[in-house]
Amino acid sequence: MAAIFYKEMMVINVLTTKIETFNNLIDGEWQESVSHKTFNSVNPANKAEIVGVFQASNEQDVRLAIEAAQKAFPAWSQTAPSKRAAILNQAASILEQNAAKVAEELTREEGKHIDDAKNEVLRSAQTLRFYAVEGQTFTGETFPNDDPNMKVSTEREPLGVVSVITPWNFPLSIPARKIAPALITGNTVVFKPSSDTPLIAFRLVEALYQAGIPKGVINFVTGKASDVGDLLVTHSAVRAVTFTGSTSAGEDIHRKASFTTRTQMELGGKNPLIVMQDADLDLAASLAVNGGFSITGQACTGTSRVIVLKEVKEAFVQKLIEKTSALKIGNGFEKGVKIGPLANEKQFNNVLKYIQYGKEDGATLAFGGNALTDAEYQKGYFVQPAIFTNVNPDSRIAKEEIFGPVIAVIEVDTYEEAIAIANDVEYGLSASIVTNNLKVANQFTKDIQAGTVKVNRTTTGNLMNAPFGGLKKSSTSTFRESGRVGLEFFTQLKTVYIGY
Ligand code: NAD
Question: What range does the domain containing 360 cover?
Answer without folding.
Answer: 271-463
